[in-house]
Every structure is written in structure tokens, then in C-alpha cells.
Amino acid sequence: MRKSPTLRVLGGGALALGLVAVGATIATDSGGTDATTVSSDNAASAGAAGAADDQLTALQRDLDLSAEEATRLLDREAEARTLDSELRTELGDAFGGSRFDIDTGELTVAVTDEAAVGAVEDAGAAARVVTYGESGLAEIVDDLNSQDTELSDGVTGWYPSTDDDTVVITVLEGERSAAEKLIADAGVAEDAVKVETTTDKPRTYADIVGGDPYMIGGSGRCSIGFAVDGGFATAGHCGAVGTPVASQGGSGTGTVGGSIFPLRDMGFVEADDNWTPTNLVNDYNGGTVPVAGSEEAPEGTSVCRSGSTTGWHCGTIGAKGQTVVYPEGRVEGLTQTDVCAEPGDSGGSWISDDQAQGVTSGGSGNCSFGGVTFFQPLTPILHEWNLTLTTR
Questions:
Q1: 207: pLDDT confidence band, cut at 50, 70 and 90?
Q2: Is residue 229 part of a domain?
Q3: 88 and 177: one domain?
Q4: For residue 122, what is the DSSP state?
Q5: Burial of 92 (0-12, 13-18, 19+ CB in 10 A)
């Protein structure tokens, strides 16, 4: 099995991949159309029939795996998600984060207390003792988040690296002094952070089938994230509260009922009665992938994305808790990936096996030569508006 792709450090002029204008290209190799044309019973069984093969095909293409390797990877990742959840609960404050290795199929759990090593190893994972861990790095991120930093200062973002047990600050080339000032102003220990430079320029990627297009106020397009009771989750930058939206064909209509952007990139559309939620994500290969839950996947695991501009693409999960400085403002709590995306993919679904992970926020690059893309985790969206994910 090949090495997990190295995540390129984001930076540049962090650009949120905003909405795309109506009339722009929409991925057309999908069997999914408006959500109103998909009955939940028939679509669910049809989606389940082809979902496994379609997802395996995408993983083979994007992660350079054989069919056997892709199947084994999904099985091992499912086990790792469950083990990660169990150890997170069992270890409590000693849990320092985790990372899955797609080459070995091994889950490594960081602990901040050496006494917890035995519990990790007894559970079947590898243990690594760290100084800061997940919670300690999160505190450093919070200290940095408290500073008034803008893109013009040269700093483009920061994220906790559980691999290095440090917080990485990304800056434009020649702007290292801006990072040093941020570190000093935040009062964080210099050995707890490291500075990396980049030339990347992230931006936001602006039915009820995840990944299908929806139109915003008659002048823009984004992608559906995940169906919830009464509507769907999507990116906050796709529309302000009260903005009217509609399915691509216009048969489904709704209104933005909740939107937070910047600071977060969370959105919720309240759908009318003629727009029916399903537990499906469009795989843009003539089928759909069913959503069974929202169990969080560890860093390093594979993840696939659905969006109405570029369709279905897969890669791996990188850092969590990423802060990105977009021109529109800072967004906190994003997850970094090495999956490509383009304008119009914003709001679209991120899924690991059958577990919903989040919705597309922004990034850099494109699907011709690759890039870095960030997603807004789904759980905070569900909690913010007391939403229930549609899983059947």
C-alpha cells in the first residue's frame, strides 16, 4: 500500500472558495439529480447496492490502491474509528490525539501520561507519550485565535500537529517576522510552535442528496452537505440567514435558517415540504453513498468529498482544529485534507466510509493539479442548531 500523501501546508492568501455564479460548470457524470426525484426508500436501496463499488473505485483512483488494498483499508479504518472513540472516552484528559497509518493499518494514540500507555497497548493501538497533546495544543491555538491577525499581516493560518506535538503557523514567503510577532503577542512558548512558509492561496469553495448543487438567491451555487431533519447542513459562507435557495431544477425550495461566517463556516438550510431529506451522498459515478452516522475519523484516515463542480474525490485527513485566515475573515476549527476542490464545491459532503465528517469550506489549488482543502466538521453544525442527521 502506498504512503499516505503528504499534506501540503496551506497558506498564501487563504481564500474561501466562495459560491460560483449560476451557469458555471456542474459535474455531470452523476446519476443523482434533484433530491426531489429520489424517493428515500428506492434511492437508499439503489445507493447501497452500488455505493461500495463506487467508493472503492474512487479510493483506488485517488489513493493509488488496488481493489484488495482499498477494501482492507476501509475495514481497518472502521476498526480504528471505533477504537479511537473508545480510548478517547477511557483515557479522558490523558488522551492526546490519534493518527491512523494507511500503510500499516495501525492506530497510534498520543497520551500525556505515561501511565496510560498500557491501556492503549492493551486495546490494540500503539502509544506515544507527548508533552502537549490534543488539549494542550488546542489551548495554544486558542491563544493564537485571541490575537487580531489579518491576512495582510502575512500570517495565513495555524493548526495543531499531533505528529510533532506543536502548533504550526503558516506564513507567506518573506513574512516570518509576522509569525514571530503573533507568537510574542499571544505569549505562547516558542518550543510549542513552528513556522512554515508557503505560496499557496486558499479560498472558499462556494439536493437533499449530499454533494448535489443548490442555487443561492438566484445568483450563485453551492453544494449540499448532509440532509438533516427539516433541511440540510452546508457552509456558512454560502448564504446569510434569510437567503432563498432552490434545488438545481427549482422544484425544491428553502431558506437559509442559520449561518455563521467568518469565525466558523457553518450553515443550515430549512427546506420546504417539497424538498425531501435522504441519507445519501452523490458519488458522481452514477450512484450514491448511504450515510449511517457521524462518527469522527482519526487523522490519517481516508476521506471522500462530493461537490457539484468537480464531483467525487478522495484523499486523507490531516490536521484538525485548523485556523485559516481567509480574506473575508478568520475561520477556526477546520479540518485539513489533501483532497482537491473548486468554487461551487463549497458546502459539499465529506464522508469516511459511511460516516459523515463535515462540509467543504475552502482551500487552495484545483482538481487539475491538486491542492489542500478544509472542511467544517459536521458535529458543531448539528449542535449549533440542534439538528438531527438523516441516516435512513
A1: very low
A2: yes
A3: no
A4: H
A5: exposed
CA 228, 335, 375, 37 torsion-angle sign: negative
Q: CA-to-CA distance for 382 and 23, rounded, in angstroms?
A: 31
pLDDT digits (tens, 9 = 90+) for 254-263: 999 999 999 9
- Given a cut of 90, whether residue 149 has pLDDT beyond it is no
pLDDT at 234: 97
Is residue 383 flagged as an active site residue? Answer: no
Region of residue 4 (left: phi > 0; alpha: psi -120 to 50; beta: else): beta
Cis bond before residue 327 (omega within 30° of 0): no
The residues, ordered by sequence, that sit 6+ positions from 115 with a Cβ below 8 Å of its Cβ are 94
Catalytic residue among 62, 84, 207, 265: 265
Count CB-CB contacts under 10 A for residue 120.
24
**Which residue range(s) make up the domain with 83?**
69-133
Residue 81 lies in a domain: yes
Sign of the C-alpha dihedral, residues 144, 150, 153, 154? Answer: positive
Q: How far apart are CA 360 and CA 378, in angstroms?
A: 10
Q: What is the pLDDT of residue 33?
A: 33
Specify the CATH number for the domain of residue 179: 3.30.300.50
Contact in structure between 167 and 160 (CB atoms under 8 Å) = yes
pLDDT tier for residue 49 given thresholds of 50, 70 and 90 = very low
Residues 300 and 153 in one domain: no
Q: Is there a domain that residue 6 lies in?
A: no
Average pLDDT over residues 124-140: 96
* 8 located within any domain: no
- Pick the last residue of a domain from 91, 106, 133: 133
User: Among the options 4, 237, 352, 353, which is catalytic?
Assistant: 237
Tell me the pLDDT band of 6, cut-offs 50, 70 and 90: very low
Strand ranges inside 201-265, DSSP E: 203-204, 213-216, 220-223, 226-228, 231-234, 244-247, 253-260
- CATH number, domain at 100? 3.30.300
* Residue at grid coordinates 479522558: 92
- Catalytic residue, chosen from 346, 349, 352, 361, is 346
Taking alpha carbons only, the member of 199, 198, 183, 281 closest to residue 232 is: 281
Amino acid of residue 125: A
pLDDT at 4: 38
Radius of gyration of the chain (CA): 20
Phi-psi region of 274 (alpha: psi -120 to 50; beta: other; left: phi over 0): alpha
Q: Coil, helix or strand for 131? A: coil
